[in-house]
Amino acid sequence: MSSGSGKRVVVTGATGNVGTSVVRLLAEDPEVESVVGLARRLPDRRPPGTQWSTFDLGAEGAGLAEVFEGADAVVHLAWAFQPTHDPAVTWRTNVLGSLRVFEAVAAADVPVLVHASSVGAYSPGPKERTVGESWPTHGWPDAAYCREKAYLERALDTFERDHPGIRVVRMRPAFLFKREAASEQRRIFGGRLLPGPVFRPELLPFLPDVPGLRMQALHTDDAAEAYRLAVRTDVGGPFNLAADPPLDAALLAEMFDARLVRLPRPAARAAIAAAWGLRLLPASPHLFDAVLRLPLMDCTRARVELGWRPQRTATEVLAEFLHGVRAGAGAPTEPLRGRKVG
Question: pTM higher than 0.70 for the full model?
Answer without folding.
Answer: yes
